[in-house]
Inverse folding.
C-alpha cells in the first residue's frame, strides 16, 4: 500500500506483507491471508506494477465465475510468466476459450487418466526402488521432482530421458519471471519453444499415437488450428502439466510427514489416501492465485477496481477461509465435504485436475506401502520456494 | 428428484462425475450425461454438492 492510495481498513503492515517476493511470505503466506480476509478483503499491492487481491472464498468464487467482468486474455499471472505466446487455452476469453476447452476436455477425463495409472505406478515404483535401501532421501529431488515431468513426457510422447531438460527450462523461466529477469526468462522460453517445435515438426510429417500428434489434429470451427496455436498449446500443457504437480506431490509428502497421526491412519486404511490428497490440495494449492483483469470498473466491499486493473483470485486463501472450512490450518482427514479451490473455479478450472489427483494418489499409495516409516529429518532443512508455482524444493527424510 | 443440466453452461469439467459417478458421466462430446433419469434420495447429498460445486453452474435439482 502506498501513502498515495490508501485502501479503507488496511493497516500498513498488512500491505507491506503483501509482497510475494518477501521470503517470509513465500515460506508461510497463510497468516497474511488470514489478516487480509479479516481486515482487507480487497487488498492492493504495489509490487509487480500493482495488483489487487481477493482473499475470501465467496468473493473469489463469484469473481472466477464471472469471466465477462474478469477476463483472462490480458494474462493470468502477476508477474507475467514470460510466455512469448499466450497460454492456451487459459489466456483466452469466451467464445474462443470455449472452443479450445471443448476440444481438450475429454483428453483429461477420469477414464482417460485411469488408462495411465499402471504406467504412472511403474514410474513411481522405479523411483522408489532407487532409494528404498538407502534409508534416506530428499523426497523433493527423488520423487516430487521427477514424477510429473516423466508422466507428461509419456503423455506427450517425448523421449523419457528429456525430462530433466524441459523441467529445468520451465523452472528457470518461472524463476526468472518471479525476479523480473526478462532476459533469462526469454532465453529459457525460447529454448523450450524450440525444443517443442522440433518435436511437433517430427509429428507433422509422421503422426504418432501421442498427445502432441493429437494437438495437430485439433479443429476449431472446422479448420485446423494454426502452427502457432499448436505450439502455444503444447507449451502451456507441458508447463502446467508438470510444474504444478511437482508442488502437489512435494507438499503432500511434507504434510503427511509433518502429521504422523494422519500417516498412521493412511497406513492402517489406504482407502483414505484420496481424502488426504484433497486435504493437501486444500492446505497448499501449488497455484496460490491466478490473475484476472477487470473489463470495466467494479466496486467490491466499497473498493473500486478500475477497468484494466489486475486482480488476483487467492485460491490459497479461499481454501483456509473459516466461513467455509473448520480448523482451517489443520490437516483434517475426515472432512465431510472439501470444496477447495485448488484447481480454481469457473470456466478456466484446471483441465488436468484428474491427472494431478491421480499422480498424487499413486505416489502416496506407493510411499505409504513401501516407506511407511519415513520421517522428516529436520524441519529446518525444508526449503519451500516458488511464488507462481509453490512447491517444496528440498524435503530431506529418513526411514 | 430430477437433475436439470443447462447445456449452454456445461463444459464437461467433470466435477459432477467425480462427486457421483453413478449419476453423471462425461461423454465423448465433453458434456455431462445423466445415467439415472430420476436418482433416489440416497444421491441427494452428493447431488446437492454437485450443484454447488459445478464450476460453470450448469446443474440444478428439481424436487
Amino acid at each position: 500500500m502506498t501513502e498515495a492510495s490508501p485502501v479503507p481498513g488496511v493497516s500498513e503492515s498488512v500491505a507491506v506483507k503483501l509482497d510475494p517476493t518477501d521470503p517470509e511470505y513465500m515460506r508461510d503466506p497463510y497468516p497474511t491471508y488470514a489478516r487480509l480476509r479479516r481486515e482487507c478483503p480487497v487488498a492492493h499491492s504495489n509490487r509487480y506494477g500493482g495488483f489487487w487481491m481477493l482473499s475470501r472464498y465467496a468473493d473469489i468464487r463469484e469473481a472466477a465465475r464471472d469471466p465477462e467482468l474478469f477476463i483472462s486474455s490480458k494474462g493470468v499471472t502477476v508477474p507475467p510468466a514470460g510466455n512469448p505466446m499466450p497460454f492456451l487455452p487459459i489466456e483466452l476469453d469466451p467464445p474462443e476459450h470455449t472452443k479450445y476447452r471443448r476440444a481438450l476436455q475429454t483428453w483429461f477425463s477420469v477414464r482417460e487418466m485411469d488408462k495411465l495409472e499402471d504406467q504412472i505406478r511403474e514410474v513411481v515404483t522405479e523411483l522408489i526402488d532407487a532409494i528404498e535401501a538407502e534409508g534416506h532421501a530428499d523426497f523433493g529431488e527423488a520423487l516430487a521432482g521427477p514424477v510429473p515431468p516423466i508422466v507428461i513426457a509419456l503423455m506427450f510422447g517425448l523421449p523419457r530421458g528429456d525430462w530433466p531438460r524441459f523441467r529445468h527450462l520451465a523452472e528457470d523461466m518461472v524463476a526468472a519471471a518471479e525476479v523480473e529477469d526478462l532476459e533469462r526468462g526469454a532465453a529459457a522460453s525460447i529454448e523450450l519453444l524450440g525444443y517443442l517445435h522440433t518435436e511437433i515438426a517430427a509429428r507433422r510429417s509422421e503422426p504418432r499415437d501421442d498427445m502432441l500428434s493429437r494437438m495437430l489434429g485439433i479443429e476449431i470451427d472446422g479448420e485446423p488450428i494454426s502452427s502457432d496455436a499448436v505450439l502455444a498449446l503444447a507449451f502451456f500443457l507441458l508447463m502446467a502439466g508438470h510444474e504444478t504437480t511437482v508442488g502437489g506431490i512435494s507438499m503432500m509428502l511434507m504434510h503427511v510427514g509433518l502429521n504422523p497421526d494422519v500417516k498412521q491412519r493412511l497406513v492402517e486404511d489406504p482407502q483414505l489416501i484420496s481424502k488426504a490428497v484433497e486435504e493437501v490440495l486444500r492446505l497448499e494449492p501449488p497455484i496460490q492465485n491466478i490473475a484476472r483483469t477487470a473489463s470495466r470498473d467494479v466496486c467490491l466491499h466499497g473498493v473500486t477496481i478500475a477497468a484494466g486493473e489486475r486482480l488476483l483470485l487467492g485460491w490459497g486463501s479461499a481454501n483456509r477461509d473459516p466461513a467455509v472450512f473448520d480448523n482451517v490450518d489443520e490437516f483434517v482427514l475426515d472432512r465431510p465435504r472439501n470444496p477447495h479451490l485448488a484447481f480454481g473455479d469457473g470456466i478456466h478450472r484446471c483441465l488436468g485436475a484428474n491427472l494431478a489427483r491421480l499422480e498424487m494418489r499413486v505416489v502416496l499409495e506407493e510411499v505409504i506401502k513401501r516407506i511407511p516409516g519415513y520421517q522428516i529429518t529436520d524441519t529446518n532443512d525444508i526449503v519451500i520456494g516458488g511464488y507462481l508455482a509453490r512447491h517444496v524444493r528440498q524435503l530431506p527424510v529418513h526411514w | 428428484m430430477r437433475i436439470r443440466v443447462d447445456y449452454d453452461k456445461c463444459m464437461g469439467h467433470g466435477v459432477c462425475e467425480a462427486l457421483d459417478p453413478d449419476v453423471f458421466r462425461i461423454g465423448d462430446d465433453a458434456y455431462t450425461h445423466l445415467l439415472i433419469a430420476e436418482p433416489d434420495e440416497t444421491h441427494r447429498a452428493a447431488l446437492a454438492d454437485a450443484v454447488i460445486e459445478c464450476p460453470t453452474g450448469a446443474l440444478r435439482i428439481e424436487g
The interface with chain A takes residues 11-15, 17-18, 21, 26, 28, 30, 49, 52-53, 55-57 of chain B (CB under 8 Å).
